[in-house]
Design brief:
6 strands
């Protein structure tokens, strides 16, 4: 019982698919990753370390006035958002001490502080960068200032 040529073709196709499946399973057992192009690369800087999530916060600003008082000002208040909701200055630009103390940055900060505090004389601004750690297991949150840059505004404008 030989069968018709159409049936033979179907049987051969089935056997080829079956054989390919067997070979693929054997190869899978021998190799650690069968299709490496389909996997995602590892992402460095993942915020979860053990049971603690660490988040780098936006900078905050501390305005120091001539009379000796100071006031903390939020990042959003100093850097107003544009029409699309994004801030006009990205926090990464302030991380670098050289950029943060550049004369152009000093003039911009002086203008922003004059706008925010028209009746006060701001002599300097401290830019603080804070890490927030949240322990998932204990539900405890802690904050720590990890970097601070003092920007003298005297003679900036």
């Amino acid at each position: 019982m030989a069968g018709t040529p159409g049936r033979v073709g179907v049987r051969v196709a089935f056997l080829l698919v079956f054989a390919f499946s067997i070979v693929s399973l054997i190869c899978y057992g021998l190799r650690t990753e069968m299709y490496p192009a389909l996997t995602m690369p590892p992402f460095p800087g993942h915020p979860l370390e053990g049971s603690t999530v660490t988040q780098r916060m936006k900078p905050s600003f501390v305005a120091h006035f001539r009379d000796g008082t100071s006031e903390t000002v939020s990042y959003e208040k100093v850097t107003p958002a544009r029409e699309n909701g994004l801030p006009t200055v990205f926090p990464e630009g302030l991380l670098d001490h050289e950029r943060a103390t550049d004369p152009r940055t000093r003039r911009w900060l002086d203008a922003r502080m004059t706008h925010l505090y028209p009746s006060k004389d701001v002599r300097s601004v401290t830019i603080q960068f804070t890490d927030v750690k949240y322990d998932i297991s204990t539900h405890m949150e802690s904050t720590k200032v990890v970097d601070a840059i003092e920007v003298n505004l005297q003679g900036a404008g």
